[in-house]
Amino acid sequence: MGEVEPAFIQDPQQRPKLSIIQAEGIPIIDLSPITNHTLLNPSSVEGLVKEIGSACKEWGFFQVTNHGVPLSLRQRIEEASRLFFAQSLEEKRKYRRDEISPTGYYETEHTKNVRDWKEVFDFQAKDPTFIPLTSDEHDDRLTHWTNLSPQYPPHFSCCVQNDVNKSRDIIQEYIQEMEKLCFKLLELIALSLGLEAKRFEEFFMKDQTSFIRLNHYPPCPYPHLALGVGRHKDPGALTILAQDEVEGLEVKRKADQEWIRVKPTPHAYIINIGDIVQVWSNDAYESVEHRVVVNSEKERFSIPFFFFPAHDTEVRPVEELINEQNPSKFRPYKWGKFLVHRMNSNFKKQNEENIQIYDYKIA
Ligand code: OGA
Ligand code: NI
What we know:
363 residues, 21% strand, five-stranded mixed beta sheet, alpha+beta, Jelly Rolls, binds nickel (II) ion, binds N-oxalylglycine
């Protein structure tokens, strides 16, 4: 790829700076008070809730250690991801997503109308995942998305979902661990807002729309012009990200709006709150912008899990937090409609901006 391809070129003000600010500031939170049950004592959980609350308020991002996800499982999915992407384009395109079921392999995603320097493989947590057919709020028809299951690498994902004799494969096992961790984090976040621990659980119990994404960022000959993922906020409730040892993730620091590089911490997960938590908390916790910078020598892999509620969830500030002094800052919206609207615009370069939670802001 000698020639600079125009679709990848970021606007001058979006291009990465050559000087990097390393994040010492992103909090690292030790989850052992809740993962190590023999240690479960109320005062250590209380401390943890406080830490989570200030991380959400000050950064919108934090890392977790002692999170309970088995390291061997993480290594297995990372290896499977490398093997999958190492195949020929022709082979990978056999599992290419389409406009009907946007799961599987894809290499031409756009963020804010500029092409991302990456290839991805998406896999829904629930198969099938029920979703509105169109983003039109008067249209009640549903459709469903199903997964594509590559034959290679072996044990990566399993085509026969209900075969009791077959142990679940890597991706399903990993998704189950991600869900478990999300439910724990959601409890801590609810407690930190002064709500009941299980306040948000119902939205995910039936028909959640979560998915996992394998990201591969190949080396890029013009890292000063392109981005692996352009600046964006995650639209869901939470994101759990596994990044490898090659850095690249940058987070916009709330204090001064500078882009801060998140230094990889071995075996930790990076957590960020998404737009839904911002709306639930009525802006107490803001969903923070982030992006991925690529480099000319090293390829990078990452695996985000996007924790998304059921399509029929009505997203609105929780009523316990609303009163005369703190009136609701958002009009309610249907998650499924929002998601479908977003998917349609990510698919191809479009002239209009993506739908945002700010479209539901009460002025
Ligand atoms: C994303 C994202 C970060 C990364 O896919 O939404 O922010 O490091 N990814 O890959
Ligand atoms: Ni993101």
